[in-house]
Fold this protein.
Amino acid sequence: MSIAELFESGERKQDKGHFRNLVLIARADGGVSEEEQGLLTKVGRRLGLTTEQIKDISDNPNRYPVTPPSGKEERIERFVQLCEMVTVDGDVAEREKQIIGRISIALGFTEDGFEELFHQVTTAFMNGSSRTEIIEKLTK
């Protein structure tokens, strides 16, 4: 661990932990498709991660702890991004759903509410809704 990593902000740690979750979901069905890799790169850059950080987290996801955000809107945004990763290749694998189920509890969602929310968000993506549209609908 570098000195810079010791003094990282909580938000930066949250971003790396979130990216780690996306990597785990992308890998859940046995490999990372071209569409999943494209989304990982896009989200990594949006989170402000360097190319080296994206590669390191992708290669070593278990070295990065998950620090969930405290705000409801940010938790919803993270959940929606996770569902976007699941649907980007057009196939929702059961293993991916299981991983998101565990992550959603860490994000503060209930086990009971997960099934309905997961179905709602993945169906919206499969029907062509954008991430922004879905987030707006869920945060109203």
The two ends are 41 Å apart (CA to CA).
